[in-house]
Amino acid sequence: MVNVVHTRKELAAARDGLTGTVGVVMTMGALHAGHETLLRAARERADHVLVTVFVNPLQFGPNEDFDRYPRTLDADLEICRRAGVDLVFAPPVNEMYPQGQPTVRLNPGPLGEDLEGLSRPGFFHGVLTVVMKLLQLTRPDLAFFGEKDYQQLTLVRRMVRDLDVPTEIVGVPTVREPDGLALSSRNRYLSAEERRAALSLSAALRAGVAAAERGDDAGAVLAAAHRAFDPGTSDARLDYLVLTDTDLEPGPVAGAARLLIAAWVGATRLIDNTAIHLAPRP
Ligand SMILES: Nc1ncnc2c1ncn2[C@@H]1O[C@H](COP(=O)(O)OP(=O)(O)OP(=O)(O)O)[C@@H](O)[C@H]1O
Ligand SMILES: CC(C)(CO)[C@@H](O)C(=O)[O-]
Ligand code: BAL
Fold it and tell me: Is the pLDDT of residue 233 over 70?
């Protein structure tokens, strides 16, 4: 069985016993093959792999799915054991926030208010605060984050850079189902019909990539993605579909870019994104 600890005291003792480099994979549990890819990447790069499993109340809005978010610790531990994880930290809420919800939170800056932050006010304050706390508690050499949550990855990179955190942030490409759907713990909420509608997100991204490969400009790439998302049959409702530069900065987009989408499928909100390479203008 993998070594699992629930308190910061137990974590400190177990962490002190790890010699060599440590790679951390932070999760909210309900592990799937996307998480397993992060575990493998950590296994390859670090001497020890430490996984955190914590559904962080700070990043959920009052009408979001904190209460019904899937909690499957036994199955998660089995996945960790198979992946050769050395240590799992799965704290209860009062261990992470013994004083209750913290009044001091990290400010993600303007990007934190855009895209995901527009639909989920306070989301990135909650994410960056818990990521920083987990970095302090686990003291990793490397930390692995999925590109599926591209804005989160971008903001974590900025935080580590801006606040001089001595951890290398490693981005891991998105793992998809054979039909294109990005793996996500929230896919478990989808009915069979919603699962079909959810394919609209990756279909939009694929159409954008295909348009860019044909040499279309940014406007035409975005238009192609919109058409593919909404062929008149989908039950998915678009939140945003944007083409930005790879740092998610506003302004004209050229060369390497990122196409990002968020949509509601029934009561479930899903996100996805892809790299886009815009041909140089003639
Ligand atoms: N399909 C995927 N491919 C690569 N990384 C992923 C994938 N899904 C999640 N991750 C990464 O795993 C880490 C933990 O994510 P989390 O536990 O929130 O899972 P999730 O599937 O993204 O859940 P949710 O449905 O809440 O978005 C994050 O760094 C996230 O980007
Ligand atoms: C990084 C994270 C574990 C912080 O709660 C969460 O946002 C996630 O699972 O992507
Ligand atoms: N996967 C990012 C965490 C969240 O949606 O709450």
Answer: no
